Amino acid sequence: MHIISTTRPYSYEVLQNDISFLLGEYPFLRSFSIGQSVMGKEIHCLQWGQGEKKLFLNGAHHAMEWITSLLLMKLLETLSYHHNNHTAIGMLNLHEMFHDLSIVMCPMVNPDGVNLQIHGLGNEHTPLQKTRLKAWNGDSTNFSTWQANINGVDLNHNYDADFEKGLFAQHQLGIYGPAPTRNSGNEPESEPESKALAEFTRSFRPHIAVAYHSQGKEIYFDFNQKAAKTSQKLAEELAEIGGYTVEQPGGMADFSGYKDWVITEFGIPAFTIEVGMGKNPLPLSQFDEIYEDNLNMLLHIMRFFKS
User: Fold this and answer.
1) pLDDT value of position 300
2) Which of 14, 143, 159, 219 is deepest in the core (most CB within 10 A)?
3) How confident is the model at residue 122 (pLDDT cuts 50, 70, 90)?
4) Residue 139: CB partners within 8 Å, gap ≥ 6?
């Protein structure tokens, strides 16, 4: 169970290689693309399981939160290993669960942004993109704190959930156009990445959805008091298992996020899980703790489907 390395920044190219290796080792996995980024990178998803109950997990809406991509891929490797070897983990029979549950993971929603944050400007960027990105970044070529996609849109503020209120909050911060963070875009789903995720969610129709972010060791479960009846209890159970806290986001984080949209659109339990502590991008030295906490939380969500 050592395909996914946890010792290097998790770029799009590393993700692609890891997907190839996982598919070679575990042919029962299904890999597919739900669309392409602004720059034409595939937005990869992987499916574990063949059941009628559906769980959707996604990571790296924000570029400098690529540790969530690594987390999802490592979790997928763990589930696959134990299913392949007919072994249980956390008293959960994964071989049995494989036939009861379909888990789809989209580990890297924002591949263009992730590569920009990790590598900076490079040959993959056109001269116009380089000029624009530098200007949007305060005339700096240091993109270490970049969160947006390559159009300068914050993908987790690009969903149709009180979008106009999000725009107002954005303007209160003095942001009126492309920026490293907090720019909602001109309209919901204006970006190919958020549109692809929304369209897949509509077609997949999950019973539970989780968006992984960093940081704060917090779990958000509600939006406009529309959360499903089971959401708060499940969030509190997850928080206790992982050593996280259940919180209500404030300010601009209150609006137009993926979790907010899912709750509004489908009325299902949907969560934002903010992994780790400290300043983004989180150091890989935190990964083992993040992984253990979130593995136990994921197993609990899987048990929830059996209750």
Assistant:
1) 97
2) 159
3) very high
4) none
Beta bridge partners of 32: 45
Q: Which are the contacts of 125, defined by CB distance < 8 A and separation ≥ 6?
A: 116, 133, 150
Distance CA 167, CA 190 (A): 14
Confirm if 147 and 279 have CB atoms less than 8 A apart.
no
pLDDT average, residue stretch 18-26: 98
**Residue 307 token pair:** 């209750």
CA distance 154 to 270: 20
Q: Which helix (DSSP H) or strand (DSSP E) does residue 36 occupy?
A: strand 30-36
Residue closest to 90 by CA, chosen among 307, 298, 236, 270? 298
Q: Give residue for tokens 């019973």.
A: 207
Distance of alpha carbon 196 from alpha carbon 193, whole angstroms:
5
In whole angstroms, how far apart are CA 42 and each of 3, 25, 246?
21, 22, 33
38 with 149: CB under 8 angstroms?
yes
State yes or no: cis peptide before 281, omega within 30 of 0: yes
3-state DSSP assignment of residue 104: strand
C-beta of residue 8 within 8 angstroms of C-beta of residue 2: no
pLDDT exceeds 80 at position 228 = yes
Structure tokens at 111: 């591949």
Q: Which amino acid is at 94?
A: L
